[in-house]
Amino acid sequence: MKKKSFEYEIENYLFADESKIAGKGLFTSKSIKKGDVAFVMKGPKFVFHPKNREESMATPNIVGLDKDLYIEPISPYVFINHHCEPNLAVGDDGVSYIALRDIKAGEELTFDYSISEYSDWDMPCSCSSKKCRKIIRSIDQLPIEYFSKYFPYIPKYFQKIFFRNYIK
Ligand SMILES: [Zn+2]
Known about the structure:
Number of helices: 3
Radius of gyration: 15 Å
Shape: globular
CATH class: Mainly Beta
CATH superfamily: SET domain
Strand order of the largest sheet: 1-2-10-7
Number of strands: 12
Largest sheet: 4 strands, mixed
CATH architecture: Beta Complex
Bound molecules: zinc ion
Strand content: 25-35%
Helix content: 10-25%
Mean pLDDT: 92
Structural class: alpha+beta
């Protein structure tokens, strides 16, 4: 088997461009079918345990994979925006992004940040969706109708946290 190099292989159809949601966003130049893996997020993974709200809020670009395990996405993945009606959700491994519907070439790719976050964190949202929650919070506070739309494409650890809080 070929040894993996330290260079990340970035999907060549992904690009960053001006977003209607916020700042720059992540886009695809090819269409992606519902249920397909749109891309695998790349970047260094590291163990981190935010001790308080200040620490959670100070690291906006990292994405949760598992308990205390995070990825710091490299470009262009780092530009992926949150949306309250996203076209992607996340597979079990925390890094495979799955299309929730057919996606056209040129569309911005988005996911719901709540499915990869469990900490004292929030973020204002103005994604213009009719379902916009305005304030985005950790997985334990995600309303069930959003959770059901993404399920099973939510990393296992965050599913567990959701169920623990929902059943309580
Ligand atoms: Zn929103």
